[in-house]
Amino acid sequence: MPSSTPLNLPAKISIAALAVLGLLGGSLIVAHAGFATSPRRGGPSTFIPAPEAYILSAVMYAMSFLALWVLLRDRQASKATTLAAMGAYGVMAWATVHVIAAW
What is the C-alpha separation between 5 and 3, in angstroms, rounded? Predict the structure, then answer.
């Protein structure tokens, strides 16, 4: 397998933003046990409850997790560093949910 070219700075910033926004979006859904949508032309919003909303939350967490993994892979981090970073990601996701819920 040929070696891949390293990511340039704009790509790294974009991927990092994807990781942070995915983490925040997933945590908001979990903290509020769902999310609300608003129609295009006004009117009452529709609340999506927890069981259905958790699917979207899982997708957002997976997107964020993969973005973090890509950044770590680009730095050619060791397996121990990668596992530590993924563990720290789990702790950050848990803490973010609790901070948002308490806010």
Answer: 7
Contacts of residue 81, Cβ cutoff 8 Å, sequence gap at least 6: 72
Helix axes 9-31, 79-102, angle to 10 degrees: 40
pLDDT at position 38 over 70 = yes
Phi (first) and psi of residue 77, to 5 degrees: -70, 150
Q: Is the pLDDT of residue 1 over 60?
A: no
Question: What per-residue string of b and e applies to 27-44 under the rule 16 or more CB within 10 Å gives b?
Answer: bbbbbeebbeeeeeeeee
Q: Where are the beta strands (DSSP E) in the chain?
A: 34-37, 46-49
Measured between alpha carbons, how far apart are the two ends of the chain, in Å?
48
Contact between residue 71 and residue 33 where contact means Cβ atoms under 8 Å apart: no
Mean pLDDT of 26-30: 93
Which residue bears the tokens 């070219």?
A: 5
The C-alpha atoms of residue 83 and residue 62 are separated, in whole angstroms, by 16
